[in-house]
Design brief:
Blueprint (H helix, E strand, L loop, with lengths): L1 E7 L19 H16 L6 E4 L3 H13 L8 E2 L8 H9 L7 E6 L3 H7 L14 E6 L12 E7 L6
Parallel strand pairs: 1-4, 2-3, 2-4
Antiparallel strand pairs: 1-5, 5-6
Length: 164
């Protein structure tokens, strides 16, 4: 059984109008939400073993907050430049390349592709993946390269404004 947590980057800042999209940082809310959401996942007892992220600043910063909550750091994050504004097919391609010794993986990316991707996984649908939202599934496989064809079940959906 493989467990996948699909996480959209936390809220980004728009203070610098001349800054490129790829370099855009998190804003104050994003810097609060990312560690708070990482703590929620820890409190659920979910043992994330691998963190995979887009290399865009806002996604990678969000991934770093999650990794640090699990006692890891930036160098422990698997980097996939192709996850920057990736279509759903790219998510499947990245997941197929994950090492099989990781059973629980968190993957960090962007809209609109992330919403399309999570809506392709199970019958559970969402209108829009919110910033720092987490859509999680379990896949009936022991190999990531079989993930796309594996039977999948919705596990949970969480985001910062959701009252638990």
């Amino acid at each position: 059984m493989k467990e996948l947590l699909v996480i959209r980057h936390a809220k980004s800042g728009w203070a610098n109008a001349f800054q490129g999209d790829f370099e855009r940082p998190l804003n104050d809310r994003g810097h609060r939400n990312a560690p708070a959401m990482a703590e929620r996942i820890l409190k659920r007892g979910i043992g994330i073993q691998c963190f995979a992220s887009s290399t865009a600043n806002r996604a990678l910063t969000t991934a770093v907050y999650f990794a640090e909550a699990y006692g890891k750091n930036k160098k422990d994050i698997l980097l996939f430049p192709e996850l920057y504004h990736a279509p759903k097919e790219t998510f499947y391609n990245v997941i197929e390349r994950l090492p099989d010794h990781y059973n629980t993986v968190a993957i960090f990316s962007h809209n609109p592709g992330i919403t399309d991707f999570v809506n392709s996984l199970t019958n559970t649908r969402i209108d829009n993946m919110p910033t720092c939202g987490i859509f999680s599934i379990k896949a009936d496989t022991n190999e990531w390269n079989l993930f796309e064809r594996a039977e999948k079940e919705f596990w949970f959906f969480d985001y910062p404004k959701l009252d638990l």
